[in-house]
Amino acid sequence: MAGLIFRRLLQLIPLLLGISFILFISLHLAPGDPASIIAGPTATKEEIAAIRADLGLNDPILTQYFRYINDVLHGDLGYSYQTRQSVAEAIMIRFPNTVNLAIASIVVATVIGVGTGIISAIRQNSSLDMLSTVGALAGISIPNFWLGSMLILVFSVYLQWFPVAGLTAAPWTVQGIKELILPAITLGTGSAALIARMTRSAMLEVIRQDYIRTARAKGVKERSVILLHCMRNALIPVITVIGLNFGFLLGGTIITEQVFAINGVGRLMVQAIAARDYTMVQGSVLLVATLFVLVNLLVDILYAIVDPRIRYE
Hints:
Elements: H1 2-29, H2 34-39, H3 45-55, H4 61-73, H5 87-122, H6 127-141, H7 144-158, H8 174-207, H9 210-217, H10 222-251, H11 254-259, H12 265-274, H13 278-306
Helix pairs in contact: 1-13, 5-6, 5-8, 5-10, 5-13, 6-8, 7-8, 8-10, 9-10, 10-13, 12-13
């Protein structure tokens, strides 16, 4: 296991370098000039040229890229072109909100998805199974921005049960939980649908196995058969889906953060893209990419914990 973790961490280096290179080149080839945006609409050509020289934008792209990577390796993600604030500082201020939202969303998705999937498998072809199928299709199809707007309209404006927007309180307080409920449901609905379908398929495959029939023949209670025998052996594909979806949720909070006015990394990326703030976009994407790879590593480790038969050579 230690060898697996070490190898995966080594694989992280070229992967992140590739991501950073593609992102860097893409941003610099896109139309627009950050120096012009920083200088403002009334700036002269001389002022714009001075800003470009100060930012090093006149250097060849590869020179700029290697300079950026050298700074990153020394723990410096650069400074925002727009606000001159440290990129690392700006991200860390907003990062807790994004993580809290992603964790709350994956909890909602897992509870709803796994529970629905188990019930659908046990009650195969019943009305509950058909209802869960329709619900899963709806969850995947409904856009986040529409669902979030409807939840705000019904539960915040009309019923006034939850705050309209923002994450201001600590997530473990009553107010913090109230602030997280609607965004978590909005972001986690699509993932819940995927988890539900995967759980149902995995449970149906396991529930037909001979050892399940043997357990029932021995008089084992049905609850124990489902939770101890079926569920544990069906967890491998479910864990994969949950882990991948958590990685996607960390990088996919942009729309939800915009709808609920959450000051997170996703919203920061939108503002940085609009302002052509290269360094802020690069720092945010690198953070999300790193977390995604680490989540995949955690999923691989959980495989061996859940199913001891799995061994990594």
